[in-house]
């Protein structure tokens, strides 16, 4: 299967006043194997590059909020807005530049789909499109590594937003089940609700995901 890679290079953030945003200012690239998902065209100087620049703090907040949805909830045939808020990286950009990268479950794998996008209010457009499949544990590990690396960068910063992120991430970590087989069985059950299902089945799918998270909580210590 493919590999999902997040490359982060910390950069100075001159003029950025929010301490958490400034501390996590970086060159950020997402790759699937050797292909750059964040390959973009910058209209200002008519150049192409592989990564984007900005704070990854909002992305980490969004990843922690949606950690289990990204690897356990499948995709309907026509994803509604609320689904996209849980699965597309666009929902985390908060004025910055991120690609329309979507992560979701499809039976025994996690699927990544990325679409070329152009935002009128931004000077860059993402030019790559593609699809790949991953082992769910690999995706969870990649996402967790990105959050952990960002929190390490923020470790000496005493700020309420950082404290909130740390608390939310601790809650996610406490829900991780060491029994991988049980995780996969429950995730496979989620995947039975397929694309195009009636609204009440899609709602049940979200409730299942929430119940799955609650069921995992505290099992790591047993």
Helices and strands in order, then pairings?
Blueprint: E1 4-10, H1 19-23, E2 25-32, E3 35-36, E4 40-42, E5 47-49, E6 52-55, H2 57-65, H3 67-72, H4 81-87, E7 100-106, E8 109-115, E9 117-118, E10 124-126, E11 130-134, H5 136-153, H6 160-174, H7 180-191, H8 199-216
Tally of extended strands? Answer: 11
End-to-end distance: 31 Å
Pick out the low-confidence regions: 178-222
**Count of separate DSSP helical elements:** 8
* Beta-strand content: 15-25%
Helix % is 40-55%
Return Rg in Å: 18 Å
What series of H and E elements makes up the topology?
A: EHEEEEEHHHEEEEEHHHH
Q: Tell me, what's the shape?
A: globular
Q: What's the pLDDT, averaged over the residues?
A: 83
Structural class: alpha+beta
Number of self-contained structural domains: 1
**How many strands, which pairing sense, and closed or not: the largest β-sheet?**
4 strands, antiparallel
Give a structural overview:
The chain has eight helices and eleven strands. With 222 residues, the protein is an alpha+beta fold. It has one domain (4-221). Strands 1, 2, 3 and 6 form a four-stranded antiparallel beta sheet that branches. The protein has a four-stranded antiparallel beta sheet with strand order 5-4-10-9, with no helix packed on it. A three-stranded antiparallel beta sheet has the order 7-8-11. The chain is globular. 32% of the residues are buried.
In short:
This protein is of the alpha+beta class and 222 residues long.
Offer a few descriptive terms.
four-stranded antiparallel beta sheet, about 25% strand, about 220 residues, about 40% helix, 8 helices, alpha+beta
